[in-house]
Write a structure and sequence with these properties.
Blueprint lengths: L6 H5 L14 E7 L2 H12 L2 H6 L1 H5 L5 E7 L1 H10 L9 E3 L13 E3 L1
Antiparallel strand pairs: 1-2, 3-4
Length: 112
């Protein structure tokens, strides 16, 4: 069974956080979006016509009545940084000699 909701169907509903988020480690915040903000988001997504042609349901699912933000505890942030050091602003990362392109393995990158 394939589900291809129209952009209008989803745009009138809110997006809910995943059900298995550990409440002690993550606080979920929801910001309401007005019609203008949803229109701007729709216009931005419409610029990705090649991706929309392939997976419209997935991309259309991002235009909702709200936007979710996740606040992480310092422990969770530290875990993410340990696995993805290049995600930290103002921190250069140098691939190791044997690093593979796109690898997420800690041993494949070395923070400077």
């Amino acid at each position: 069974m394939e589900w291809n909701p129209s952009p209008g169907e989803l745009a009138s509903t809110s997006i809910e956080p995943p059900p298995k988020i550990p409440a002690r480690e993550v606080t979920v915040r929801s910001l309401a979006l007005d019609d203008s903000q949803r229109g701007q988001k729709r216009a931005a997504l419409d610029r990705y016509s090649s991706q929309l042609a392939i997976s419209p349901a997935f991309l259309n699912a991002f235009v909702r009545t709200n936007e979710l933000f996740f606040e992480l505890t310092p422990q969770v942030v530290g875990s993410v940084v340990a696995h993805f050091p290049w995600a930290v602003p103002n921190r250069s990362v140098e691939p190791t000699r044997h690093a593979r392109a796109g690898s997420t393995k800690r041993e494949d990158v070395r923070a400077r």
